[in-house]
Amino acid sequence: LKTGGVMRGVIDPSEDDAADSVTMKLLSGAEIELPSEHISSREVRPLKFEQYEVRAESLPDTLDAHWKLAEWCREQRLDEQREIHLEIVLAIDPEHRQAHYGLRHTFYRDQWMTREEYDQTRIADGFVRYKGKWVPVDKLDSVKSDDAASKAEREWYAKVRVWLNWATGNHAERAADGLNNLRGIDSPDALSALVQFLGKSQRADIRRLFIEIAGKIEGPVPVVPLTTLSVREDVRELRELALSMIDESRYDQARQLVISDLRDRNNILVRRAGTVLAKIGDET
Fold first, then answer.
1. Quick one: 257 exposed, middle or buried, by C-beta within 10 A (0-12, 13-18, 19+)?
2. Selection from 170, 164, 245 nearest residue 205 by Cα
3. Mind giving me the DSSP string for 60-110?
């Protein structure tokens, strides 16, 4: 108002701004008519802001009152107003756990810290934030390398899924392309996708395809799935094929996996593991 006062309430949106007066319903429920000549300006915003102002003006300065108003602000999604009252709660009770959590504080080294204080402390301790996690500076390169590998693995999922759909589809030319693409895979990063879509297939011919592809991938990565199939694959021919794909340079890794199968509760798997060890085992 031109007198310096403020009136809070609801104005009918259909009212003409150029009208001689404004009808307002106050938060108390009363309805008044204000001559336009007494109004200096209007601010239109959601009713919850006005409700907050009314509550805050008559609020007792106690921990319980400020906490309850902070909770009301949370329900109304009045984040800035909520923080005001949470800060007051902490001024009254510095150990108020829920208020600290509400302000996103962290309890570290036996004290509560703001996000900025916590970040500075972790940096001083030799950590750096990487993709939302704190990582020791001296291990950052390793973490980035692992992250890059994981990304490469995820990219293979889409390729293998599409190529397998082609290979098993009814379109002859596309089926040939899909099969050729799958047979051309030699990247260790693709193994996780190959296990998921081919190695776990219900079709024996698809599992055979997996064994043939995995057998061409160099390094230690394919040893685990090939060794697993050499014991747990139900088709004997495929078990023998999987074992044949593991060369002698990788026997040590495979041997440890098969030894653990000797403790399986299923005697059939124990006997199969013994058969495999007869071929790749040593004197120990």
1. middle
2. 164
3. -SSHHHHHHHHHHHHHHT-HHHHHHHHHHHHHH-TT-HHHHHHTT-EEETT
Higher pLDDT, 147 or 284: 284
Looking at the predicted structure, is the pLDDT value of residue 148 above 60? no
Residues 70, 59 contacting (CB under 8 angstroms): no
What is the model's pLDDT at position 27? Answer: 77
Other Cβ atoms less than 10 A from the Cβ of 61: the count is 8
Query: What are the structure tokens assigned to 23, written together?
Result: 């009808």
Q: What is the pTM of this model?
A: 0.51
* Predicted confidence (pLDDT) at residue 172 exceeds the cutoff of 70: yes
φ and ψ at 247, to 5 degrees?
A: -80, 165
| Cβ-proximal residues to 152 (8 Å cutoff; 6+ apart), any chain | 187, 189
